[in-house]
Amino acid sequence: MNEFIEKLKETFGDRLISVGRHNIGVTSFLNKNGVFVVLDKVSADDLFKIKSIYTKYKKQFSTPLVVDKEFFRRSADVFCMEMLELKENGEVVYGENLISNIEVEDEDLRRQIEYELRSKLLILKGAFIDLPLDRKVVDDIAYRSMYNFLLILRNLLRLRGKLINDATLIEEFEKEFNIKLDAFKALRDTPKIPFDKLLKIFKKYIEEVDGLVKIADKVLD
Asked: Hey, which of 122, 162, 164, 183 would disulfide with 205, CB 3.0 to 4.6 Å?
């Protein structure tokens, strides 16, 4: 990370406001740590420059989130779950700390949870119908979508007054809402599932997400 930051400083000088890490909380098992880069403003040329720097570091962290200084303040009512995740599970490693003062209103959070849950479920069902059911595709669909659903679990619990920020998230959600999320736990705990078993788990996963919609309807009313 230090070498990456030095390259950014050489390229952008005083225009580099902040650099930090994210995806280091309850979703970290799904992907490499992420990095965010804050510039005074972001142009297409800036993205090309960061792309050329990032190429060397692809194995260390996922695609950088590149934003301007106002992004966190302006986005807190739209990307509520993501902003809370940055605030609570992000780490500033260079420059200004722009994530510590992020504020999210409960009503905005409720609105995003409902939208994300219903839309991601539709996408999940559509992908199951449309895409070939081979290992790479099923792995990709399941683990990419699970990031969003884990954030939804965490924030539904938040709205019930419980903030869970460790590996017990799924179990705590099961206890709070009297639901079984066996497919979620199987995907979390078993990185190399035999493909025939993975298909069965994926079908169960869709059913469990369907159950989350019913729970969310009660919590969000």
From this structure: 183
